[in-house]
Design brief:
This is Secreted protein. The chain has two helices and twelve strands. With 177 residues, it is mainly β. The strands form two sheets. Strands 1, 2, 3, 6, 7 and 12 form a six-stranded mixed β-sheet that branches. Strands 4, 5, 8, 9, 10 and 11 form a six-stranded antiparallel β-sheet that branches. The chain starts with 8 loop residues before the first helix and ends with a strand.
Length: 177
Amino acid sequence: MRTRKTIAIAATAAALCGIGIAAPAANADVRPMADCGAPWNNVGSPGNLYGFGYYAGQVEQQYQVCGGGVVNARGHFQWSADFQTRFPGTWVQVGTGSHYYGPDFPFTTDNTTDKDVSSPGFEVHNAKPDQWWAFATLTSTPNGCTSPSDWDGTARGTDWLYANGTSVEAPDNASCS
């Protein structure tokens, strides 16, 4: 079982209106959230997310190579069409995280009206080592779906170490009811 970090996702989301701020102001070495316009590529394997006993969708990590050694990563979630139809108005929070970076992770929150939900891009070298995963959790749902605390209701894609291009940990599936 991987080490779990508890983060105040709900409080941060409320304070930031759904967009995470990833760079602490005191660290001049931190590169800001970005999208350089290069294509986004999938990396690793996705984690599956279930809600109300149904498959809700999958989350995976994507990266883009911008040149000059800059590599951005983001979380990408794709809703199941069946889940979108059964549970319209359900929200998902999508982002990227690392055991080696904090306190805040870049994330976004969106609902079932969009098929694909992606978090802001974030330069992978902000974490040392540059190991990241994508995460997704159902949140603020009109149907009462709640995720347990401490990451239990959060699906995660493969932990990916960019320094050598390897998978560090397998994806985690998750559900809420």
